[in-house]
């Protein structure tokens, strides 16, 4: 923690150790904003540089720098996931530095205790008051409370008894409570008939009630939102009356992360990235490539379909196509078909099943382009669009069969071209294309540097997180909910990074429409990045441009460029 770093600076900058190799190493390691996951630079102008000092300047990350400096005979201290670490070189005793134990006791002991106390106080201040509505209410559903003569009367009796016994009703406004009760009663009433066609048994109704009492809760009641917003957390939320399973904000990752990441390794190989220039502290791909800002910041809406994987990967591919073509792929019709991807790409990599609304993985699109064929624009294959063209989705949540030709969108005119004439195949993007552990991975968490470097060198890319109610209700700030999550369920697109207050974040494009969050985007803490996908560098240069414009429904025509 920074609290622990302060006394380290005091010791290492004291006259007793000034000018020693230890002081030189410590000044670098204990510098402001430098931690175990950060890139570091060794300054050549430091006094007392030993032989081999310039060789160590080539070490671009903390672990490599520590190993190099230790080899030069230095004692190197750093802060990592396990706390304070130290490494001593063979010649460390010749430079007159204190022992590891002595420095640790003198410099860290008091600060560590003080830092833990401050952190505990801060954490307690940030924890919202307990709300019964957030707990498991199924334990309050009792058979003895079913006293009615019909499923509706049983449901009414059960609901009132649960609200009274749990106190959950106190966490809801009158309107929220009324809506919750109606949804619960409806769910219990619609319990399926028994196999023989008879009415549900008492046991079946009780089972349905136990499920419905949690499933029909509002996802972010007003009082809960107010509590979160007053807790001093780095993000804000807004009240949200939809339920946990409401398809308005769908996810869409397919189970099996280990299978997708197998063979990729926990960290991106250094020889894949250029690395000749380190990324800055703050970076936005829209600023770096202004001619593609509109494409990079274009907001889409996946609607009632678990196709986040298709939207996230297409968002990154759109952006990288624009960058590769020098801005030529940036018109209003230059938008890869999410509908085609959800159907055809899913069919190619999900055992022949084409329903991309059941989830998938972003890496599939990159492999499809490399191994199969290209992807047509949205104008050729609209995304299950209906009526006004604002990208409303079929309530069934099922992707249609993969098309083999451009599909008409009645009553509007068809796309003025053939599918095979307008397929975009950015070869290279799938070779290599692999998933890697992100900065929020629990097992051997890597640094954020490689992901930053990949964005800095090539443009936006996708990452996966464990999203929940807080993300659905997100309004502003740096959201940390989901950090350390195990069950990945959502894919989004990283377009840059920055710092808000003292917290670093990933600038992220979501696929829930411009009405959600911060105009369709959010700032996610790095600890949310559990896995990310590296798309290979595009080598293909020839594309069917310009794409003809057809007056058909396009995904939310909103840009955050």
UniProtKB/TrEMBL annotation:
Membrane: present as a keyword of the record? no
Which BP terms in the Gene Ontology apply to this protein?
Answer: proteolysis
> Which SMART domains does the UniProt entry name for this protein?
Pept_C1
PROSITE patterns referenced in this protein's UniProt entry, alphabetically: THIOL_PROTEASE_CYS, THIOL_PROTEASE_HIS
* SUPFAM superfamilies named in the record: Cysteine proteinases
Keyword Glycoprotein found: no
User: What Pfam families does this protein map onto?
Assistant: Peptidase_C1
Family note: Belongs to the peptidase C1 family.
Protein's recorded name:
Peptidase C1A papain C-terminal domain-containing protein
Q: Which organism is it from?
A: Zooxanthella nutricula
**Lineage per the UniProt record:** Eukaryota, Sar, Alveolata, Dinophyceae, Peridiniales
């Amino acid at each position: 923690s920074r609290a622990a770093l302060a006394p380290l600076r005091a010791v290492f900058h004291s006259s007793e150790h000034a000018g020693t190799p230890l002081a030189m190493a410590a000044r670098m390691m204990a510098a402001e904003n430098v931690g175990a996951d950060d890139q570091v630079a060794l300054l050549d102008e430091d006094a007392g540089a030993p032989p081999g000092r310039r060789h160590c300047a080539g070490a671009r990350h903390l672990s490599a720098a520590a190993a190099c400096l230790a080899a030069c005979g230095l004692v190197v201290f750093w802060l990592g996931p396990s706390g304070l670490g130290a490494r001593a070189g063979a010649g460390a005793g010749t430079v007159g530095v204190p022992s590891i134990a002595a420095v640790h006791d003198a410099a860290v002991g008091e600060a560590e205790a003080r830092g833990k106390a401050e952190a505990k106080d801060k954490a307690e201040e940030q924890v919202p008051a307990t709300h019964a509505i957030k707990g498991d209410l199924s334990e309050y559903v009792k058979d003895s409370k079913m006293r009615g003569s019909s499923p509706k009367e049983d449901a009414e009796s059960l609901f009132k008894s649960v609200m009274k016994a749990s106190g959950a009703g106190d966490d809801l406004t009158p309107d929220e409570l009324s809506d919750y009760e109606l949804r619960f009663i409806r769910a219990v009433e619609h319990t399926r008939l028994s196999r023989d066609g008879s009415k549900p048994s008492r046991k079946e109704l009780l089972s349905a009630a136990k499920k419905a009492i949690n499933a029909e809760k509002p996802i972010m009641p007003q009082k809960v939102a107010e509590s979160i917003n007053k807790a001093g957390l780095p993000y804000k939320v807004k009240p949200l009356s939809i339920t946990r399973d409401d398809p308005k904000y769908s996810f869409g990752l397919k189970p099996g992360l280990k299978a997708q990441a197998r063979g990729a390794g926990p960290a991106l190989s250094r020889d894949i990235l250029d690395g000749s220039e380190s990324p800055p502290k703050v970076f936005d791909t829209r600023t770096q490539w202004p001619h593609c800002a509109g494409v990079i910041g274009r907001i889409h809406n996946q609607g009632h379909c678990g196709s986040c994987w298709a939207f996230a990967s297409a968002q990154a591919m759109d952006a990288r196509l624009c960058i590769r073509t020098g801005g030529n792929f940036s018109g209003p019709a230059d938008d890869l078909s999410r509908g085609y991807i959800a159907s055809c790409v899913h069919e190619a990599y999900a055992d022949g099943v084409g329903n991309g609304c059941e989830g998938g993985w972003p890496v599939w699109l990159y492999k499809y382009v490399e191994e199969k064929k290209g992807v047509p624009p949205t104008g050729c294959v609209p995304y299950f669009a209906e009526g006004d063209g604002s990208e409303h989705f079929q309530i069934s949540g099922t992707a249609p069969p993969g098309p083999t030709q451009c599909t008409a969108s009645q009553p509007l005119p068809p796309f003025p071209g053939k599918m095979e004439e307008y397929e975009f195949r950015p070869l290279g993007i799938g070779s290599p294309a692999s998933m890697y552990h992100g900065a929020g991975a629990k097992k051997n968490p890597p640094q954020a540097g490689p992901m930053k470097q990949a964005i800095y060198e090539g443009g936006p890319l996708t990452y996966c997180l464990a999203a929940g109610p807080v993300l659905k209700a997100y309004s502003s700030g740096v959201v940390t909910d989901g950090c350390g999550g195990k069950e990945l369920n959502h894919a989004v697109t990283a377009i840059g990074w920055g710092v808000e207050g003292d917290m670093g974040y990933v600038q992220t494009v979501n696929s829930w429409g411009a009405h959600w969050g911060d105009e369709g985007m959010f700032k996610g803490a790095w600890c949310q990045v559990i896995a990310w996908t590296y798309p290979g560098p595009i080598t293909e240069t020839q594309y069917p441009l310009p794409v003809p414009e057809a007056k058909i429904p396009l995904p939310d025509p909103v840009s955050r460029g």
